[in-house]
Design brief:
Length: about 270
């Protein structure tokens, strides 16, 4: 039985700092993480022992399939979020960690770094997204699967060490496209339906083939490894019952923590200055 008690408690505390930051001293050593996601950009701030201080998040369409497609737009949002948090806590955010999908080329990783450094923060560490998520989950054995808006990325862990990573372009965006096509509505309207938990049962038959595709991605990449558990994170993992579909398709136990959307952003901050 997987116990997410500690991870869930941490995520709940981070949720609170979206609206109510915690006071800190000006000399406190902060851990900062910038997440350039396909659907959201966020900055998460923790203190030196990993306790949540502040978090700010904004919806964005400046990254596609893990790649920055609107450099100035991304930089503008990061600057805005940075200023928001600095005004709230009274401390400058000087250093940060960032994350990229597994297998991202150095050139594309550098683009993420340039965006953040152009917004006024030095990037001190870069980690792949599922590995960042495991900074929160602390999984020793199994596969951490980060299903974002653009891609499904995964890291396989054995004895706490990453032994394999992969990433493929299927994610929440594809769910929204299917919903939009079925209801003949805009992508934005479909995206809102996808995030409305009260409509998850309604849309489940529509999005089932896409989730099954995600499951096949996982199955293909874990073949040859001894994996007893699949740990789901990322915004798309917020979909009600997605873990049941993944389990049914792969034949492997699938679980997710509280609010999977925030797991990777918090893990990025935890990886700062490691």
């Amino acid at each position: 039985m997987v116990d997410f008690c500690k991870a869930d408690s941490l995520i709940m505390e981070v949720e609170e700092t979206l609206t109510h930051n915690r006071n800190i001293g000006k000399d406190d050593k902060l851990k900062v993480g910038v997440d350039l996601g396909t659907s959201h950009i966020s900055i998460t701030v923790l203190d030196s022992i990993g306790k949540p201080v502040a978090c700010a998040m904004e919806e964005a369409r400046v990254v596609r399939d893990g790649l920055v497609v609107d450099y100035m737009g991304a930089q503008s949002i990061v600057k805005r979020l940075k200023m928001n948090i600095e005004e709230r806590i009274g401390v400058e955010l000087a250093e940060t960690a960032i994350a990229v999908p597994p297998g991202t080329s150095k050139r594309d990783s550098d683009t993420h770094r340039y965006v953040v450094e152009g917004a006024g923060m030095e990037v001190v560490s870069i980690v792949d997204e599922p590995t960042a998520a495991n900074m929160v989950l602390n999984i020793k054995d199994g596969v951490v699967v980060d299903i974002g808006a653009g891609t499904t990325g995964l890291s396989i862990f054995e004895d706490g060490n990453v032994v394999y990573t992969a990433d493929e372009p299927t994610g929440g965006t594809h769910l929204s496209l299917v919903i939009a096509g079925n209801y003949k509505i805009t992508f934005e309207e479909a995206d809102r339906i996808k995030r409305d938990k009260s409509r998850h049962k309604e849309i489940r038959p529509l999005i089932l083939p896409v989730v099954q595709k995600m499951a096949s991605i996982i199955s293909n990449h874990i073949r040859g490894f001894k994996v007893n558990d699949i740990f789901l994170v990322g915004g798309t993992s917020c979909l009600t019952g997605i873990e049941d579909i993944i389990k049914a398709e792969t034949g492997i136990n699938a679980v997710k923590p509280y609010n999977p959307l925030l797991v990777t952003p918090v893990g990025i901050a935890l990886s700062c200055s490691l």
